[in-house]
Every structure is written in C-alpha cells, then in structure tokens.
Amino acid sequence: MEIEEKKIGSVLVVVPRDSRIDAAVSTEFKGRMVDWINEGSKLIVLDLSHVDFVDSSGLGVLVSSLKTIGGEGDLALCCIQKTVMKLFDLTRMNRVFSIFPQQSDAVQALNEKYA
Asked: Are the beta carbons of 74 and 114 closer than 8 angstroms?
C-alpha cells in the first residue's frame, strides 16, 4: 500500500494513494497507523481523497486507530469521496469521526483543539 505522510505542526497527515482500503491492505495499513501512534503521533488527519472504496475491514482499521489514540489525541478525516461518505453515513461512522471537506480545515481544527 502506497501512503504519503507529512507533518504539519503537531499534526501527522496521512494520504493513502490506493483507491481501496479493504481486506487486502487493512493489515498493512493498521500496522503503519499503530506504528505512527506509538511513535508519538497522536493528532492524525487521514486524507481520503484518493480512496473510493472502504470495506468493513477498512472501517475496522479506522476505529481501531481512533481507539489506540484514545483520549490523548484525535483522528480526523478529510476529502472523503461521495461513495465512501455514503458508507460513513450508513454505518453512522460520521458521528464517530470528525470529518472535514479540506485537509487544511482538518489540520487547523486539530491544531486549535489541542494547542
């Protein structure tokens, strides 16, 4: 799985370059998320602009990552395509995650909330 990562202030921005977060990549993706969190990245923005499909294992990775961060930080999502947003609405994950239209909005919100 190809993933771009960059640090903006105290926020780690993660951009999966694959179009799918599914069972085929979920184990690798979860491992990388856990590594970043264990290395101290507690404020993470996940930019889903390239992702047009997420299955239940992909959702599981996101929920697991949020739980791993716990109360020490947050995982915000941004740039979600319509097909993926329908899944978040259907599963009510839109109530679990902070979701922003643009990457800059998500980064700003986390920086302000945890300043």
From this structure: yes
Give the pTM: 0.95
Q: How confident is the model at residue 114 (pLDDT cuts 50, 70, 90)?
A: confident
Distance (Å, rounded) from C-alpha 8 to C-alpha 82?
26
Give domain status of residue 81, yes or no: yes
Tell whether 33 is covered by a domain: yes
Strand partners, 74: 43
Burial 56-68, CB ≥16 within 10 A → b, else e? ebbbebbeebbeb
Which pLDDT tens digit goes with each residue over 26-62? 999 999 999 999 999 999 999 999 999 999 999 999 9
Domain count, the chain: 1
| pLDDT(75) > 90 | yes
CATH number at residue 32: 3.30.750.24
Residue 96 belongs to what H/E stretch? none
Per-residue pLDDT at 71: 87
Of 36, 46, 35, 32, nearest in space to 98 by CA: 46
